[in-house]
Design brief:
Order of helices and strands: HHHEEEEHEHEHEH
Structural class: alpha+beta
Strand order of the largest sheet: 5-2-3-6-7
Distance between the termini: 37 Å
Shape: elongated
Helix content: 25-40%
Length: about 190
């Protein structure tokens, strides 16, 4: 999916006019173009498939748990088109000594967060992409985020954090889930 530059720029001009601004004044004359560039960057995830980023390689692992934590991300809420941002934490259990590269796991987060999103769906999509691409025994994904729609408008509660999780496969077992949450420093969630 490629963005329609002309439509976005026209839309931004209409918004500026709608709030009573002159889109041709010095400070705003390039705003439509800047907004297109902004959307082109922060919504770049539509053009990529996260499962193709996860390449498996073989290493002696004995199906032991692997975790990654504090993966920073930002996204745009599909309801208000305001940013939400935070950290993704994940743990997975490979099978048959097949693991994914750490940077590949981070790329999955990047791709899925660079779309219009809701946090709940993004959390699920990250977990499902990992399971589909590397055929692991289980995965746990925890996403913590602050939503500017809660901070700037409506209820106006800065610092509120939303926490979502997705659990697949062997991670549904209580002992395994506790091990994963302990590794991620999230026991007591």
């Amino acid at each position: 999916m490629s963005l329609d530059r002309d439509k976005i720029m026209q839309g931004v001009r209409l918004i500026l006019e709608g709030i009573g601004e002159d889109p041709d004044r010095e400070g705003l004359e390039r705003t439509p173009e800047r907004m297109f560039e902004y959307f082109d960057e922060v919504l770049s995830g539509y053009t990529e498939d996260p499962t193709t980023e996860l390449r498996k390689y073989t290493t002696s692992n004995k199906d032991e748990m692997i975790s990654l934590k504090d993966i920073s991300f930002y996204s745009l809420c599909e309801h208000h088109m305001l940013p939400f941002f935070g950290k993704v934490h994940m743990a997975y259990i490979p099978q048959h000594d097949k693991v994914a590269g750490f940077s590949n796991m981070v790329r999955v987060v990047e791709i899925l967060s660079h779309r219009l999103q809701v946090q709940e769906r993004m959390t699920t999509q990250i977990a499902d992409s990992i399971v589909e691409a590397i055929d692991c025994k289980g995965v746990l994904v925890v996403v913590e985020a602050e939503h500017l729609c809660l901070t700037m408008r409506g209820i106006k509660k800065p610092g509120s954090r939303i926490i979502t999780s997705a659990i697949r496969g062997q991670m549904r077992r209580t002992a395994t889930r506790i091990e994963a949450l302990t590794m991620l420093g999230r026991v007591g969630l």
